[in-house]
């Protein structure tokens, strides 16, 4: 009886760990998708394909300021081998650099929220925020073909 309870407990712990690992991956992917959704209209504004809209820019910058602080905490060692992720092992090998890039994006977005008042300041400041995406993706995300 004790052995059955012990085995059942171990199995439950294993299932719980797998669910938690999956949940962490899903959480960080949701944060990234939210950032991607904000990038599309902002990118269109940068290219002149959509009219400048300060409210949309500020909404996007708010997401860019908040989400990186959240997602850098969602890479526990246990999620290193998770399936269905584009995260590279470099995240865990260079954790401080990864977290630093997330913090920089957050800080740059917060600074841009204050600095952007019109289309001219938007075109000057927004690239500073968006370059953080590329810096992180180039080093810490699998390339998709």
From TrEMBL:
It holds the Pfam family Cytochrom_C_2. Residues 1-20 form the signal peptide. InterPro entries: Cyt_c/b562, Cyt_c_II, Cyt_c_prime. Keywords: Electron transport, Heme, Iron, Metal-binding, Signal, Transport. Coiled coil: none annotated. This is Cytochrome c. The lineage of its organism: Bacteria, Pseudomonadati, Pseudomonadota, Alphaproteobacteria, Hyphomicrobiales.
